Each structure stands twice: as structure tokens, then as C-alpha cells.
Amino acid sequence: MERTDSEKASPELIEGLERVFRNNAGLAKSLVRYIGKFYEKLEKDFGSFKIMDFCGTHEWTITHYGLRSLMPKGLELVAGPGCPVCVTPSYYIENALKLSFDGVVVYTYGDVFRLLSLKRVKGASSLAEAKALGADVRIVTGIADAIADAKAHGKESIFLGIGFETVASGYAQVLISGLLPENLKLMSLVKLTPPAMLATVEILAKEKSAVRGIIAPGHVSTIIGAKAWKPVADKLKIPVVVTGFEPIDVLIAIAEVLKQLVRGEAKVSIEYARAVSWDGDIKAQEMIERAFRVVKDAWRGIGFLPNSGLRISESYSSHDAFREYDIEETVPESYQDDLPKGCRCAEIVIGKEKPTGCPLFMRKCKPSSPVGPCMVSLEGTCAIWARFGADGLADQIAEDLDLR
Ligand code: SF4
């Protein structure tokens, strides 16, 4: 949707935000000192521990700006399942491949285009390969592009709706407003993040170095509101901080997590108040509730999680690709760890392992030739580390600046 002039951020505002949240070495140094002091108070009781981010863009900020190198030894920043492409089971890509070879036009985002399926379908193990073999697969930047294009050609088509709550409201809007043409069906593979956050931290609780704080996703929270994380903070008894995407945002969030831990608190805080409210976007939440039903869903590398996926509700089922093409859902009884041999994405998406712990990282598996799902999307942890984080440069810079 085009923004009106009054809704657009002025150049002065953008410049001001960058000055405060990006180009602010003085504040960064103070925050790093606070983080160090808070950690010193916690080290005796907790030993080493983790703070987990749940958004590929936060992981990008942490890695791109070298924030790990500024942390005290013993405080580890790890990435959780914050990349929807990484956790979409191969099974659904295989079904999209089948449809593409049956003559259905498949609309997809650019990263999903390169996502590898475990099984080959008619010689293809990705939509990119299917396209090379003659299938009609089209990359779009959103469902609006797919609608316009499908209306123009009139052929049977599907849109692969992969994403988190952030995209769900857009899909809900087109369903409720009747914007989808008859020939375009939506395959909703939307995943819900709070159940994954709960499950991941609980899995890691059994590890030596537990997760003691969470950097909650900013984009998702604009829709679901910070309140959505309260059950997580209450159940896990750890601080959850909703944060923006500039380096200062993330440092403030880490300091806030540690401050709460020092005080023995476990609250949900909003650092990203310039975009996120406690209640979120109520209208969007109502639309999502109306257009979708919540299902137990499969997360690639993790398995089935209760109440963690969205499928189109009965009222809008005439637009549902699952119904139109008799695609059966994968079920827990037959679902298996669907990762290629040697790929350690199952541990990487829950923050148990680092990309550098995978023997294929930057050897057989690179951004230009991904093997596993975490190397495909710009939000995948392996892809982010491959591009920005694996060469130790940030450590060197931090040491040179005496920031450690
Ligand atoms: Fe999987 Fe590649 Fe990451 Fe290894 S480097 S975990 S193969 S995506």
C-alpha cells in the first residue's frame, strides 16, 4: 500500500534515528560497559548463559555489526528459529514442485525459489530447478504482485504463503476483501512465533548453558503486540525484550535483559516503542483470526509444535490451495527430520549449535550453493554468518578498540 506524504518518515527523522540508533559510538560504549557490569554480578550465580534472538534481522544486526565480539566471555548471543524459510518442511516444497510440473503457475518469494527439497520431483529439488526444466515458477515480492499477474494471464496458479505473523495480516486482508482471483489459490504455510519460542527455550533448558533472556522480534510484535510474549516470560521466568533492528537497539535490549536478571525480574519490556505497542495491531489480529484457523504445525528441524501454524479457515476455503489440489497435510506419525545428510540446521535453528560447528559450512554449503535450509534465505543463520560473521574480523576490531 502506498504511504501518504504525512505517513512517510522525513529525511530529518531518518537521519535523527540513524544518529541515535546506528552511528552512536558514545552510547554503544556506555551500553557495553553496563552489559559488562551487569554480567559480572550474574556470573557467580549463573555461570555462562545465552540470550536468544528470534528474528533473522536481529541475527543480521548482531552478526553484521560484530556485537558478539563486544559481549563478556560467558555471555553468548544465539539465534533461534527466526527464519520462516528455514523451518518450512521439505514436504510442502515437494508439493509445490509437483503442481508446477502439472502446469500450475507457482508464485514464490526469491529465497523460497532456491529452497531445496529433500526428495527430487521430476528431476528438480527446488523451484529454481523446476523453472529451469520448463515449469512456470514466478518470483514476486508479495501477494499483490501475484494477484495482478494471475488476473492478467488467467491460468491456474498458487501463491506459496511462507512467513510469520507479519505477512499473515496481508494474506488475511486479501482473503477477507475478496481480492484473490478465482484462478489463484493461497497455500498458507504461515507459522506463529510464540509457541516456537517456548519450545526452543525449553529444549535448551536441558543444556549446560541455558537461555536466560530473549530478544523478541520487532516486526512480528508490531502485529501481535508485546502482550503476546507475556505467557513466555511468565512460564519460562526469563526477561523478554521487544527490540528494534539497529545495533544500539540490540545493545539496549541485552542490557535490559541483564538488568532484569540482576533484579530477579522476568518481564516483557518494549525497547522498540517507536513501532511496537503492548496490544499490537488489533485490526490485523482480528483479520488473522477471521481468515485463518490455528493448527499444530511442523517446523523443519524441530518437529510438530502445538498451535504454531495458520491454515485458511472454512469460510474462505474456496481460496485454499490445500483443498483445491487435495494436498494432504504432513502428520506427526510420518514426519521425520527432513534435512539433508550432514546438515546441522536442526541444532542451529534452536541455538544449540553455531553454523561454524557444521562440517559443511563454507565448504560444501555456501550462499551460492546451499545444501541446507539455513543457508538459503538472507534471514537464515548460516547465510548470515557466511556473509558477515565467520572471519573473526569483528573480534579483531573490538580488541583494537579495547571494547572487550
Ligand atoms: Fe545446513 Fe549448510 Fe548450515 Fe551446514 S552450513 S547447517 S549444511 S545450512
What is the structure about, briefly put?
The chain has helices at 11-21, 25-46, 56-64, 90-101, 110-113, 127-132, 143-153, 165-176, 193-204, 218-224, 230-236, 247-263, 282-291, 321-324, 345-348, 381-389, 393-400; strands at residues 49-53, 75-79, 105-108, 137-139, 157-163, 184-191, 211-216, 240-242, 268-270, 292-299, 303-312. It is an alpha/beta fold and 404 residues long. The longest helix is centred in the N-terminal third of the chain and has 22 residues, at 25-46.
Provide tags for this entry:
404 residues, alpha/beta, Rossmann fold, 17 helices, 41% helix, binds iron/sulfur cluster
**Proportion in helices:** 40-55%
* Form type: globular
Number of helices: 17
Beta-strand level of the residues, as a percent range? 15-25%
CATH class category name of the domain at 90-193 and 286-324 = Alpha Beta
Specify the CATH architecture of the domain at 90-193 and 286-324: 3-Layer(aba) Sandwich
Radius of gyration: 21 Å
Strand count, sense and barrel status of the largest sheet are: 6 strands, mixed
Number of strands: 11
Stretches with pLDDT under 50, minimum 5 residues: none
Structural class: alpha/beta
The strand line-up of the biggest sheet is: 4-3-5-6-11-10
CATH superfamily of the domain at 90-193 and 286-324: HypD, alpha/beta domain 2
Helix-strand sequence:
HHEHEHEHHEHEHEHEHHEHEHEEHHHH
Description:
With 404 residues, this protein is α/β, with parallel strands linked by helices. The chain has a domain of 143 residues: Rossmann fold (3-Layer(aba) Sandwich), CATH 3.40.50. The strands form two sheets. A six-stranded mixed beta sheet has the order 4-3-5-6-11-10, with helices on both faces. A five-stranded parallel beta sheet has the order 2-1-7-8-9. β10 and β11 form a beta hairpin. It binds iron/sulfur cluster (SF4). Iron/sulfur cluster binds next to α15. The site of iron/sulfur cluster has 14 residues, from α15.
